[in-house]
Amino acid sequence: METLIKPPCRDRRTRLREALGKGWLLLYKGGEYFNENLYYLTGLDTFYTFALISLETHHEYIITNPFECLSAKSLCDVEYICECRPNKLVSKLTELFRKHKISLLYCDYAFDSRTPLPPELVDLLRGTFSDLTLQPLPSQLFRMRMLKEPFEISTIKKGIKIIKELFAELPAMIKPGVSEADIAAEIYKHLIRSGFNKFYDVFVASGPNSAIPFYRANKGYLPDNSVVLIDICAAIDYYVCDLTRLFSTSGSFTERQEKLYSIIRNTYAKAIQDVRPGTSLAELSEKAKKTLAGYGLDKYYPNKIGHFVGLSPDDPGDQDTVLEQGMVLTIEPGLYLPNEGLGIRIEDTVIVV
Length: 353
Hints:
With about 350 residues, the protein is of the alpha/beta class. The chain has 2 domains: about 10-145, Creatine Amidinohydrolase, Chain A, domain 1 (3-Layer(aba) Sandwich), CATH 3.40.350.10; about 145-350, Creatinase/methionine aminopeptidase superfamily (Creatine Amidinohydrolase, Alpha-Beta Complex), CATH 3.90.230.10. Helix content is about 35%, strand content about 20%. The protein has helices at about 10-20, 35-40, 70-75, 90-100, 120-130, 140-145, 150-170, 180-195, 255-275, 280-295; strands at about 25-30, 50-55, 60-65, 80-85, 105, 135, 195-205, 225-235, 240-250, 330, 335, 340-345, 350. The strands form 4 sheets. A 6-stranded mixed β-sheet has the order 4-3-2-1-5-6, with helices on both faces. It has a 3-stranded antiparallel β-sheet with strand order 7-8-9, covered by helices on one side. A two-stranded antiparallel ribbon has the order 10-13. Helix 1 (about 10-20) packs across helix 2. The protein is elongated.
């Protein structure tokens, strides 16, 4: 079995320190959820874990639960790693604040945060340290995550290859009467055996379910002469790959299905050709809309052609972000026609070169 390659976390922390030069950074993972920023900077995905990192000096601390402390020490290159029971984490953290007289703290507490600090902790820190200034996580951190390192790109390419090979095997089990759940189960089994370790969505949307852009139930059965849209969004070694393919449930598409599928293939191909430094997802999406408008289909297009991926399915970056070499995003033009019970989408994870 392949071993997980350690990400270059020390180098990342050094680059962030050089970019900011002041303050401290606080990251936290509680009893659930994956904190991609914690993993990016420390290589840790352990429960009840604080990372307190100076951006002025080389002081760095990891405080984690007793059950995973030994594992953390083997995975993480931070020198000071100590164990602490969850109910003692905050008192240990405040000791460090007092020791270093921390006055500027970058932390994850914004309204739209994916991995926010507990609001009680934010209130406690503000109440205990009157001179403490809190700032959202620095944009420089998100900028670093947007520009993938060779190590990250290699991992993502590996995952893309595995999913594409899986898609090539799926037609053997796609036939009328098969349950969406059975297909999803085979997908999960294959991905786990192939080294994927996080799963965000596996949509198996057949018949009218295909017209629901984010169909998650997987409770239907494949009908005759219809389509099944299969979206796989999963992470290998924590890095997300997001791909979608469309299949016929009866071996070949109907004339109407083939016509729409051909239009989406054409739209997809044009978008892929236009992925280059200097453009943006918003520009690519507008071009796709114009292409579909030429067929009178733009009202069935959701006006978003893709999103950035990396350590999360919605990595840093938005529709107006100017693309640069090393960014990774999805291209996924789709049409959703609920009145026809039909949805069509092609999606690939694409690396900007």
